[in-house]
C-alpha cells in the first residue's frame, strides 16, 4: 500500500471505524484513540496491509482489540469511564440512545456481530473472517443478539391500552 | 418488538451513524500520524538494538567468565584419588615448542598423584615430548627444563618414570594450602592426625647425617614436609621442601647432579 492509498484509507474510513468501534465499546473518545492507534500501526505495517483483502477490516480489527485491551486495563484500574462526546457530533436520537443501551447489555461478541452486520454492512462471511469464527457462529450470534435486543427494546415501547 | 421493527430501528441508527462518521474529525493530521509512526518505529528499532547489544555482551561475559573459571582448576591436594586434569594454559617459554602445553602452570597444586600434568609414574618419554626433560640423562635426579625449574619443581626419571616431585619454593602448595615457608606447627594444625612424624632418609650426601625427622602423609603415595632442623620437629621449624614420593618410600632426594 503506497502513501496515496493509505491517505485515502485514513481520510475515508477513520470516522466510519470510530463510530463502529464506539458502538461496540460504548465510548466514542476511547474509540477515537484506539482507531488512531490502529492507523498508526497500520502505517508501520503497510506491507502486511497489502496482503489483506480489506485494509479497513485490518484497522477495525486492530482498533477493536485495542479497545478491549484498554477496557480491561481501565476495569483493573477502576478509572472513571469517559463517555464525553466531541462538540462536532450532534446529540443522538432517542431511538439510538435506546438501541445503544440495549446493545450495551448484550455480550461483547453478539454486540460486535450486530455492529459489523448492520452498521458496517458486512456479509456474514467477512464477519466470520474478521472475528475469527465460523459463519454458523456468526449467524448464531446475530440471531441471539436480535432476540436480546427485541426483548430489551420491547420493554421500552409504550404499553397499548386495551379497548373496552 | 417485531423483527421488522428491530431491523428498521437498526437501519435508522445505521444511517445516523453514517452521518455522524462524516463529522468525526481525526485528532491527528496525516503527516503527524506518519511522523509519529516513524518515530515509534525508530524507537523500537533502537530499543531492539540495545536489547540485542546487551544480550551479546551478556553472552560474551558468560563465555569469558567460563573460560577464566576453567583456567584455574582446583584439585584435591591430599585426597587419595584426586582428579588429574590437563594443565591450564600458559604461554610456553622460548625453549619450549609453541604447540606443547605446559606441564605445570602457576596455580597448580600438589596432589597425592602429582601436579598438573606431571604425575608420578609418568614415562620419561612423555616428559621429553613435552619439553621438560632432556632426551638423555646420566643421573638419577635430572634437572628439568627451565619451565619446571622456574616453577620450583624438581623431578626424577632415573627409572624411566617420574619417581618423585619436589617442591622447594612457595610457588605451589597442596590444596589444603601448605607451602614452603610455613612452619611445621602450621602443617600440623592444618592436617592434624593425617600427618605423622617419620624419619626419612636423605638420598644423597648430607654431611651431618642422612636421616631427618619430617611430617609425613602416607596414602598410596607419600608426601614429606621437611625442614632444615636436625633435631626433633619443633612447631617453629620452617618447611623447606614438600616431596611427593612413589608408594611408601621415605627416601628424599636433596641434591641434583
Largest sheet of chain B: 8 strands, mixed
Q: Helix and strand string of chain B, N-terminal first?
A: HHEEEHEHEEEHEEEEE
Give the helix level of chain B as a range of percent: 25-40%
**Beta-strand content of chain B:** 15-25%
Tags for this model:
heterodimer; A: 164 residues; mainly alpha; 8 helices; 0% strand; globular; B: 257 residues; alpha+beta; two-stranded parallel ribbon
Short description:
The complex is a heterodimer of chains A (164) and B (257). By secondary structure, chain A is mainly alpha-helical.
Structural notes for this entry:
Chain A is mainly α and 164 residues long. Chain A has helices spanning 3-25, 28-44, 46-51, 55-77, 94-104, 108-119, 124-131, 135-154. The longest helix of chain A is centred in the N-terminal third of the chain and has 23 residues, at 3-25. Chain B is α+β, with helices and mostly antiparallel strands and 257 residues long. Chain B contains 5 helices and 12 strands. Chain B has helices at 3-23, 30-70, 124-129, 146-149, 184-191, and strands at residues 109-110, 114-115, 118-119, 141-142, 153-156, 164-167, 173-174, 196-202, 211-219, 221-227, 239-245, 251-252. Chain B starts with a helix and ends in a 5-residue tail after the last strand. The chains are: A mainly alpha (164), B alpha+beta (257). Chain A binds chain B through residues 3, 7, 10-11, 14-16, 18-20, 23, 32-33, 36, 39-41, 43-44, 86, 88-90, 92-93, 95-96, 99, 114, 118-119, 121, 146, 149-150, 153-154, 157, and chain B through 1-3, 6, 9-14, 16-18, 20-28, 30, 33-34, 36-37, 40-41.
Amino acid at each position: 500500500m503506497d502513501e496515496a492509498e493509505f491517505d485515502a484509507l485514513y481520510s475515508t474510513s477513520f470516522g466510519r471505524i470510530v463510530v463502529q468501534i464506539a458502538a461496540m465499546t460504548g465510548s466514542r473518545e476511547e474509540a477515537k484513540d484506539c482507531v488512531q492507534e490502529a492507523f498508526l500501526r497500520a502505517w508501520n505495517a503497510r506491507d502486511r496491509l497489502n496482503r489483506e483483502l480489506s485494509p479497513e477490516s485490518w484497522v477495525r480489527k486492530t482498533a477493536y482489540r485495542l479497545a478491549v485491551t484498554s477496557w480491561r486495563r481501565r476495569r483493573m484500574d477502576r478509572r472513571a469511564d469517559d463517555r464525553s462526546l466531541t462538540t462536532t457530533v450532534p446529540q443522538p436520537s432517542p431511538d439510538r440512545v435506546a438501541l445503544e443501551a440495549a446493545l450495551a447489555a448484550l455480550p461483547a461478541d453478539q454486540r460486535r456481530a450486530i455492529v459489523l452486520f448492520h452498521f458496517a454492512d458486512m456479509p456474514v462471511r467477512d464477519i466470520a473472517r474478521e472475528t475469527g469464527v465460523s459463519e454458523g457462529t456468526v449467524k448464531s450470534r446475530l440471531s441471539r443478539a436480535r432476540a436480546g435486543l427485541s426483548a430489551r427494546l420491547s420493554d421500552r415501547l409504550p404499553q397499548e391500552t386495551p379497548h373496552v | 418488538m417485531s423483527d421488522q421493527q428491530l431491523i428498521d430501528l437498526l437501519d435508522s441508527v445505521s444511517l445516523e451513524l453514517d452521518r455522524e462518521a462524516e463529522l468525526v474529525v481525526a485528532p491527528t493530521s496525516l503527516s503527524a500520524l506518519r511522523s509519529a509512526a516513524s518515530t515509534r518505529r525508530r524507537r523500537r528499532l533502537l530499543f531492539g538494538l540495545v536489547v540485542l547489544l546487551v544480550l551479546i555482551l551478556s553472552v560474551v561475559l558468560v563465555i569469558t567468565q567460563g573460560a577464566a573459571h576453567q583456567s584455574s582448576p582446583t584439585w584435591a591436594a591430599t585426597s587419595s584419588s584426586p582428579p588429574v586434569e590437563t594443565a591450564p594454559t600458559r604461554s610456553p617459554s622460548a625453549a619450549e615448542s609453541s604447540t606443547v602445553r605446559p606441564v605445570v602452570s602457576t596455580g597448580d597444586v600438589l596432589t597425592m598423584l602429582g601436579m598438573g600434568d606431571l604425575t608420578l609414574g609418568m614415562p620419561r618419554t612423555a616428559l621429553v615430548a613435552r619439553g621438560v626433560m632432556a632426551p638423555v640423562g646420566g643421573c638419577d635426579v635430572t634437572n628439568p627444563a627451565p619451565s619446571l625449574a622456574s616453577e620450583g619443581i624438581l623431578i626424577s626419571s632415573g627409572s624411566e618414570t617420574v619417581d618423585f616431585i619436589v617442591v622447594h619454593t612457595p610457588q605451589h602448595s597442596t590444596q589444603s594450602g601448605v607451602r614452603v615457608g610455613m612452619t611445621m606447627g602450621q602443617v600440623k594444625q592444618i592436617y592434624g592426625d593425617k600427618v605423622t612424624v617419620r624419619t626419612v632418609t636423605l638420598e644423597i650426601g648430607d654431611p651431618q647425617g642422612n636421616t631427618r625427622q619430617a611430617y609425613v602423609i602416607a596414602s598410596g603415595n607419600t608426601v614429606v614436609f621437611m625442614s632444615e632442623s636436625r633435631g626433633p620437629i619443633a612447631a617453629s621449624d620452617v618447611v623447606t621442601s614438600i616431596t611427593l614420593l612413589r608408594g611408601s618410600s621415605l627416601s628424599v632426594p636433596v641434591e641434583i647432579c
